[in-house]
């Protein structure tokens, strides 16, 4: 089983069409990885599917970087 | 150059497919190779659709759906995805009328028409959209009415919903165009269906006199436009309202 970090990075790379090595923890989806608003919605949906959870909208809005996504998953599913 | 209208391997969901325009749309998409899920408000209506598909050699089934109930929709989509795969073609056709002059209109007549004709388009489209964005291909086609553009006394509720879906389509087209999804509206004029058969003869004649082509439209003439939009041939049309009314209203 891959770690949460690896799984999150893989999904971000797939959803945003970027290389996995560019998916650094501090990378912002919009500013660094070129996501638009629809991309970020799809990304959150993909995370929900991967980790079989539901991320409330008000929490989803705060998940703007790779590290914040990893932290959210760890805190809520750990 | 050939006109590519094949819908092979595509799953299509058509609401209100037991009769009239919806039935013609379901049958036409099926004849072009799509697997069609046609919905009806009753189990008997759904069975009739299944029987009709079988008779015509169309792949797919009829299913019961109340478009005003989220649970009914969730149940339907779950079973469709399991048996056929997620729909990538959605035709929002189900609709009702509750005509009345506004001064006499009851709150229920307003609310029911809004819920069935407009809120249901939001509901069903939203439920299908995620799978279309994943597939990076989708077709959403709303069946509206000429009344949404030209207005009609006694149909303020109906006309509001029909104008509403066109605006919905334009906005959604802007949202999801980058995912290969087109969203369009087809606005039929005076079509020969059960909905128009109930009109009094005098009103029919008055309407006919305003149609340059001098006849009612056939449900198949709406279905062919929907099929075009659903196919690759219509792939660059999005956010548009296509009027199909024999010239009764020219926008």
Automatic annotation (TrEMBL), chain A:
PROSITE patterns: CARRIER (PS50075), PHOSPHOPANTETHEINE (PS00012). It holds the Pfam family PP-binding. The keyword Ribonucleoprotein does not apply. Residues 2-77 form the Carrier domain. The modification O-(pantetheine 4'-phosphoryl)serine is found at residue 37. Coiled coil: none annotated. GO terms for cellular component: cytosol; membrane. GO terms for molecular function: acyl binding; acyl carrier activity. 4'-phosphopantetheine is transferred from CoA to a specific serine of apo-ACP by AcpS. This modification is essential for activity because fatty acids are bound in thioester linkage to the sulfhydryl of the prosthetic group. Keywords: Cytoplasm, Fatty acid biosynthesis, Fatty acid metabolism, Lipid biosynthesis, Lipid metabolism, Phosphopantetheine, Phosphoprotein. It is found in: Cytoplasm. Pathway: Glycolipid biosynthesis; KDO(2)-lipid A biosynthesis; Lipid metabolism; fatty acid biosynthesis. GO terms for biological process: Kdo2-lipid A biosynthetic process; lipid A biosynthetic process. Its main location: cytoplasm. Belongs to the acyl carrier protein (ACP) family. Carrier of the growing fatty acid chain in fatty acid biosynthesis. NCBIfam families: acyl_carrier, PRK00982.1-2, PRK00982.1-3, PRK00982.1-4, PRK00982.1-5. This is Acyl carrier protein. The lineage of its organism: Bacteria, Pseudomonadati, Pseudomonadota, Gammaproteobacteria, Cellvibrionales. The gene is acpP.
Automatic annotation (TrEMBL), chain B:
Keywords: Fatty acid biosynthesis, Fatty acid metabolism, Lipid biosynthesis, Lipid metabolism, NADP, Oxidoreductase. It catalyses: a (3R)-hydroxyacyl-[ACP] + NADP(+) = a 3-oxoacyl-[ACP] + NADPH + H(+). Its EC number is 1.1.1.100. Pathway: Lipid metabolism; fatty acid biosynthesis. GO terms for biological process: fatty acid elongation. SUPFAM superfamilies: NAD(P)-binding Rossmann-fold domains. The keyword Metal-binding does not apply. Residues 10-189 form the Ketoreductase domain. NADP(+) binds at residues 16-19, 41, 93, 158-162, 191. One of its GO terms (molecular function) is 3-oxoacyl-[acyl-carrier-protein] reductase (NADPH) activity. Transmembrane segments: none annotated. Belongs to the short-chain dehydrogenases/reductases (SDR) family. Catalyzes the NADPH-dependent reduction of beta-ketoacyl-ACP substrates to beta-hydroxyacyl-ACP products, the first reductive step in the elongation cycle of fatty acid biosynthesis. Homotetramer. This is 3-oxoacyl-[acyl-carrier-protein] reductase.
């Amino acid at each position: 089983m891959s770690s949460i970090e690896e799984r999150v990075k893989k999904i971000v790379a797939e959803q945003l069409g970027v290389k996995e090595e560019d998916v650094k923890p501090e990378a912002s989806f919009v500013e660094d990885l070129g996501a638009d608003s629809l991309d970020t919605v799809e990304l959150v949906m993909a995370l929900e599917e991967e980790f079989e959870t539901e991320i409330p909208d008000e929490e989803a809005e705060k998940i703007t970087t790779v590290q914040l996504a990893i932290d959210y998953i760890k805190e809520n599913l750990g | 150059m050939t006109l590519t209208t094949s819908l092979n391997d595509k799953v299509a969901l058509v609401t209100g497919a037991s009769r009239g325009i919806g039935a013609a749309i379901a049958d036409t998409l099926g004849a072009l190779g799509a697997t069609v899920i046609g919905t009806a408000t009753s189990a008997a209506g759904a069975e009739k659709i299944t029987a009709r598909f079988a008779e015509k050699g169309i792949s797919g089934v009829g299913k019961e759906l109340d478009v005003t109930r989220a649970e009914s929709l969730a149940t339907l989509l779950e079973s469709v995805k399991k048996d056929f795969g997620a729909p990538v073609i959605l035709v929002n056709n189900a609709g009702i009328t509750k005509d009345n002059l506004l001064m006499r209109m009851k709150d229920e007549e307003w609310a029911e028409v809004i819920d069935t004709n407009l809120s249901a388009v939001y509901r069903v489209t939203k439920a299908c959209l995620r799978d279309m964005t994943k597939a990076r291909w989708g077709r959403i086609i709303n069946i509206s009415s000429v009344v949404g553009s030209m207005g009609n006394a006694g149909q303020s509720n109906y006309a509001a919903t029909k104008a509403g879906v066109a605006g919905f389509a334009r906005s959604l087209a802007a949202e999801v165009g980058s995912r290969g999804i087109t969203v369009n509206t087809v606005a039929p004029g005076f079509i020969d269906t059960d909905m128009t058969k109930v009109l009094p003869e005098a009103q029919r004649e008055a309407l006919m006199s305003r149609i340059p082509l001098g006849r009612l439209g056939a449900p198949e003439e709406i279905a062919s436009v929907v099929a075009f939009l659903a196919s690759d041939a219509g792939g660059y049309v999005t956010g548009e309202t296509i009027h199909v009314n024999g010239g009764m209203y020219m926008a």
